[in-house]
Automatic annotation (TrEMBL):
Its cofactor is Fe(2+). Substrate binds at residues 136-140, 169, 182, 186, 275. It comes from Lactobacillus equicursoris DSM 19284 = JCM 14600 = CIP 110162. This is tRNA N6-adenosine threonylcarbamoyltransferase. InterPro entries: ATPase_NBD (IPR043129), Gcp-like_dom (IPR000905), KAE1/TsaD (IPR017861), TsaD (IPR022450). GO terms for cellular component: cytoplasm. Fe cation binds at residues 114, 118, 305. PANTHER family: TRNA N6-ADENOSINE THREONYLCARBAMOYLTRANSFERASE, TRNA N6-ADENOSINE THREONYLCARBAMOYLTRANSFERASE, MITOCHONDRIAL.
Length: 336
């Protein structure tokens, strides 16, 4: 059978990325241009700054992706791009680059959901067997997703307020950690102890939903109170206590969902899936199940935003003939 090669673009937030993916599972090239430094001093992503950076690098990294894969446009079978959810101005840069490439080459265009991309990153690591279940945890999303097949996903649990990564970033600000704070808090957590016993919201509720804003407030109040009375709190213990609360609820709800739905594969995706505490905990708890699913925890590089995951998801759509045309538009609040 003929190999299918997809050139993919991702520009939904603060990374511009291009990739060539073969048969939905093999990364032939992956280029990620990060803008983190430009946003760090603002404490979060500034949409206008993001768009400008995407424009500056996208042509260059398209050439790099082809060169790194040692292919030319003639070897490409389709062009894929994230069209939501994300920042509208940022998404439009990738969409317009993909449309221009599609027009110039005559290659078919595929519009990919960013979240479907994060989850399908697992396909670049190992074969996903269906039904599968994913814990999708990033800066904008915290969801438990049931995957009936490669293109039909259903959200069974969601956050009612903040996303897990957003909570990390917000408490990071209080601790003076630059955006995005998750990785540093994760490292600090390994050097401290859970001494503060922060709330585990909704942990015993009979649903698969989450809430992190109460935890965030409890954390901030604890720090402010200590400030007022001139007490110095241990940042490692604070980080460990925060992380223990996040990991406890994510693990409890996800394990309950796995018991209920009995998936054949369990996947983690999104930036927070890089969290070492969460990875260890999920590994342990799943191994202890009576009928454990196969577990795919993508390497850290594939947990954050990248175009290879978009190429993987696009391949599944390619096989179903799910193509877009030049009317493809950004959908900033797109839902699975
Ligand atoms: O998926 P991603 O790269 O972008 C979004 O689509 O949101 O996720 C970024 C988020 C940020 O909130 C960042 O703080 C968080 O992932 N993150 C982590 C870790 N590494 C990144 N959170 C907890 N622990 C980590 N090791
Ligand atoms: Zn993302």
């Amino acid at each position: 059978e003929k190999d299918i090669r997809i050139l993919a673009f991702e520009s939904s937030c603060d990374e511009t990325s291009t990739s060539v993916v073969k048969n939905g599972s093999e990364i032939e090239s992956l280029v990620v241009a990060t803008q983190i430094k430009s946003h760090a001093r603002f404490g979060g992503v500034v949409p206008e700054v993001a768009s400008r950076h995407h424009i500056e690098v996208i042509t260059q990294i398209t050439k790099e992706a082809l060169a790194e894969a040692k292919v030319t446009w003639d070897d490409i079978d389709a062009i894929a791009v994230t069209h939501g959810p994300g920042l509208v101005g940022a998404l439009l840069i990738g969409i317009n680059a993909a449309k221009a490439a599609s027009m110039a080459t005559g290659l078919p265009l595929i519009g990919v959901d960013h979240i479907m991309g994060h989850i399908t990153a697992a396909q670049l690591v190992d074969k996903i067997e269906y039904p599968a279940m994913a814990l999708q945890v990033s800066g904008g999303h915290t969801e438990i997703v049931l995957m009936k097949d490669p293109t039909h996903f259903e959200i069974v649990g969601d956050t009612r307020d903040d996303a897990a990564g957003e909570a990390y970033d917000k408490i990071g600000r209080v601790l003076g950690v630059n955006y995005p704070a998750g990785k540093t808090i994760d490292q600090w957590a390994h050097q401290g102890k859970d001494t503060f016993n922060f709330p585990r919201a909704m942990i015993d509720e009979d649903n698969y939903d989450f809430s992190f804003s109460g935890l965030k407030s409890a954390f901030i109040n604890t720090c402010h109170h200590a400030d007022q009375i001139g007490e110095k709190l241990d940042k490692y213990d604070l980080a460990a206590s925060f992380q223990a609360a996040v990991v406890d609820v994510l693990a409890a709800k996800t394990i309950r969902a796995i018991k209920q739905y009995q998936p054949k594969t369990f996947i983690m995706g999104g930036g927070v899936a890089a969290n070492l505490g969460l990875r260890e905990r999920m590994d342990q708890e799943i191994a202890a199940l009576a009928n454990p699913p196969k577990v795919i925890l993508p390497p850290l590089k594939l947990c954050g935003d990248n175009a290879a995951m978009i190429g993987a998801a696009a391949y599944n759509q390619y096989l179903e003939g799910d193509f877009a045309d030049l009317r493809l538009d950004a959908d900033p609040s797109m839902e699975l």
